[in-house]
Amino acid sequence: MEKDNINIYTIAKEAGVSPATVSRVLTGSARVSEGKRNKVEALIEQYDFKPNALARGLSNIETKIIGILVSDIRNPFYATMVVECERYANANGYMLMLCNSLGSNSMEQSHIDKLASRQVDAIIQIGGKVDELVSDEKYVEMINRIANKMPIIITGKLDGADCYQVNIDEGQSMEIVLEYLIQNGHQEIALVGGRADVKSTMDKRFRYRQIMRKYGLTIREEYIISGKTYDIEGGYEAMKEWMSKGFPIPSAIIAINDFTAVGIMRFLKEQGLSVPENVSIASFDNTYMAEGYEPSLTSVGYDYKTFGESLIKTAIAAIHNEEPARAQLIKSHLYVRESCRKF
């Protein structure tokens, strides 16, 4: 390894310790086990490593900053996640550096590069490329290069990437809402919104089919309706296009998220159809829109507090080389409101 490329992070990686441990050895600021100290000191001597003045002046090499990249902060799901992450991070002596990619792949990669160059202690990515059903090989390679220097935690998946994962149990979330509708007498149930190239959407569709079969209900493929976007307009346009084909209205619709549900209900209202009198609506995410819309939405929600804490706990544990779980699942809960009726 070239001497010019040696820094505290490369010493830590080769010694199998955290950057903070290397800092403690350099500064003598805290007790380090003899085994770890010997490994670090041997590498320091081997590479004739001399930290710069800034590093020598630090009692702890951590920046105490965690980078967090989200797909679109305007979406209340992402906004709520960031707030919960920030709350727990602040309580544990860390601050967040927020980046918002606005759904742009190029901006996403640029933000990841900038966070890495600022040497944040860890990076958390929620949404964007990590939601893709088929992982982008070039993006995975970029993430792996950065993961050699700092932990990366994601809420989706990147096949082949050295990341920690904290994910919603998408199958369980679909199961609880679909079984609720079936138990209340619904048999013709549509699933509206989302794209086939997004993993969370496909996970929901697979479980939808599985549960329908379990209860002996007919799976009508025309009732699995894609949308171009995950916002209100996407829900409106998906419902408009579907109804233009003359299919019979199902007794219940499961929207891929609260935004989509609002778009669906707006279109149905324009057509003179009432919720839940003519058709029941349920959705996912349980954001503020679920309670704020009229009628209020029955929605599957997640323990956002636990979700945010799990992301930050994983980041902090990985920063300190404590080997947290590589994959974790967050369970869902159904919040029953006014948009669904019983038969």
Concise account of the structure shown:
The chain has a six-stranded parallel beta sheet with strand order 2-1-3-4-5-11, with helices on both faces. Strands 7-6-8-9-10-12 form a six-stranded mixed beta sheet, with helices on both faces.
Task: Describe the protein's architecture and organization.
This protein is α/β, with parallel strands linked by helices. The chain has three domains: 3-56, 434 Repressor (Amino-terminal Domain) (Orthogonal Bundle), CATH 1.10.260.40; 65-168 and 304-331, Response regulator (Rossmann fold), CATH 3.40.50.2300; 170-301, 3-Layer(aba) Sandwich (Rossmann fold), CATH 3.40.50.2300. It has 13 helices and twelve strands. The chain has a six-stranded parallel beta sheet with strand order 2-1-3-4-5-11, sandwiched between helices. It has a six-stranded mixed beta sheet with strand order 7-6-8-9-10-12, sandwiched between helices.
Question: Which terms would index this structure?
Answer:
343 residues, single chain, alpha/beta, Rossmann fold, 434 Repressor (Amino-terminal Domain), 3 domains, six-stranded parallel sheet
Query: Can you tell me the overall shape?
Result: elongated
Rg from Cα: 24 Å
SS-derived structural category: alpha/beta
> Looking across the biggest beta sheet, what order are the strands in?
2-1-3-4-5-11
**How many distinct domains?**
3
CATH topology of the largest domain: Rossmann fold
Distance between the termini: 71 Å
The helix content is 40-55%
What is the chain-wise order of helices and strands?
HHHHEHEHEHEEHEHEHEHEHEHEE
List segments where confidence is low: pLDDT < 50 over at least 5 consecutive residues: 53-60
Strand content: 15-25%
How many beta-strand elements? 12
Biggest β-sheet: count, sense, barrel?
Answer: 6 strands, parallel
Q: What CATH architecture label of the largest domain applies?
A: 3-Layer(aba) Sandwich
CATH class (first level) name of the largest domain? Alpha Beta
**CATH superfamily descriptor of the largest domain:** Response regulator
pLDDT averaged residue by residue? 89
Number of helices: 13
